[in-house]
Q: What sequence folds into this?
């Protein structure tokens, strides 16, 4: 597994190191492909987004990105729940489907149902050219991840979320939610995530250290608010899939309605704490756990002070202290969690590329 003359023990590690160039290619994607995709979305009365697994967590991030940038409400529904959630699908709907393989049986079933029974338009974000999903779609954005060998998706996820950020920004531009200058600043900030990802990878030893600290844990909570809840879900899934640790991701505000019952001295809680609108409320949730003895591990911006002060360990994300950088930082936060899961798996002597019982593409319903 060689990349740029450097050899990697596992495909997952090599593919994580491909993230900066892959997201750069995505961010530079042709404007025409983006425009017709966005036009179709904006013509619809109702917008749904669907996917499975990691792709669903990218979809959830997309739902938040579109609304955070002033776009329309998007309902996110797991593809395996799609038909049962929408027995009477509204007319003039668009379904955005997100998939690495474009062959996930539940995703195909959901979009065929939406298209054939209810006349919905299908806009897909898919990595494999010529896959079944591309054939059933009205609009397609091809992600630039390229061949992903590790079963647990990572560079595909990062390109999916980069594409969804572009979609959100284009919608904001068309709806004039922000001035032309501000849109440009958001786009520049998005492009800077390439360098941020690069820096995270250069400094990956720090993430490895935290990975070592949690590698003997048997249960871990991942808690966050808003868009970061999708990051928490993805971080928890990765650790579960490749390091076989029981993890649970929760919207932090919900943690006092149940998960808090398990907290005792040393119970590890990973908080994803970017300095966005959720920050001060998240601190309240951290304190609820900390005061009951939880070990607090937080993923924070480089310039963070308050969450750092109440955490046992922090992983610091090198983002700039401005609203443009903060609003476009989901990929760097998630890349960090994916890398951490990789290191934990490696510490435990496991095979992160082929986790047991999992398939790269699930073609059964
Ligand atoms: C492998 O287990 C992946 N982590 C899994 O969640 C995957 O993302 C999901 O099965 C969807 O696959 P797709 O992106 O190919 O549709």
A:
């Amino acid at each position: 597994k060689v990349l740029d003359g450097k050899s990697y023990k596992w495909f997952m590690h090599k593919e994580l190191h491909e993230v900066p160039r892959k997201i750069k290619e995505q961010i530079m994607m042709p404007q025409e492909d983006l425009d017709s995709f966005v036009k179709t979305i904006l013509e619809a009365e109702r917008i749904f987004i669907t996917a499975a697994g990691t792709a669903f967590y990218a979809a959830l991030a997309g739902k938040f990105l579109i609304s955070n940038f002033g776009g329309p409400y998007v309902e996110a529904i797991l593809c395996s729940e799609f038909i049962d959630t929408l027995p009477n699908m509204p007319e003039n709907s668009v379904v955005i489907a997100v998939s690495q393989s474009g062959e996930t049986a539940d995703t195909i079933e959901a979009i065929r149902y939406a298209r054939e029974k209810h006349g919905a338009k299908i806009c897909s974000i898919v990595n494999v050219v010529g896959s079944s999903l591309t054939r059933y779609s009205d609009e397609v954005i091809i992600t630039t991840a390229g061949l992903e060998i590790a079963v647990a998706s990572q560079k595909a996820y990062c390109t999916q979320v980069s594409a969804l950020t572009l979609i959100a920004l284009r919608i904001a531009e068309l709806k004039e939610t922000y001035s032309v200058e501000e849109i440009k600043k958001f786009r520049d900030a998005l492009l800077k995530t390439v360098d941020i990802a690069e820096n995270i990878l250069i400094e990956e030893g720090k993430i490895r250290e935290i990975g070592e600290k949690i590698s003997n844990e048997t249960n871990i909570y991942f808690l966050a608010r808003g868009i970061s809840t999708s990051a928490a879900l993805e971080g928890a899934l990765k650790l579960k899939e490749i390091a076989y640790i029981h993890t649970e991701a929760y919207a932090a505000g919900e943690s006092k309605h149940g998960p808090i019952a398990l907290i005792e001295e040393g119970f590890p809680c990973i908080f994803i704490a970017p300095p966005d609108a959720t920050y001060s409320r998240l601190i309240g949730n951290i304190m609820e756990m900390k005061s009951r003895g939880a070990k607090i591990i937080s993923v924070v911006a480089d310039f963070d002070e308050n969450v750092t002060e109440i955490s046992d360990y922090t992983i610091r994300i090198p983002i700039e202290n401005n609203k443009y950088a903060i609003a476009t930082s989901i990929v760097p936060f998630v890349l960090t969690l994916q890398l951490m899961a990789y290191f934990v798996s490696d510490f435990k002597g496991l095979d992160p590329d082929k986790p047991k019982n999992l398939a790269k593409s699930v073609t059964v319903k």
Summary: The two ends are 33 Å apart (CA to CA). The chain has 15 helices and twelve strands. The chain has a mean pLDDT of 96.
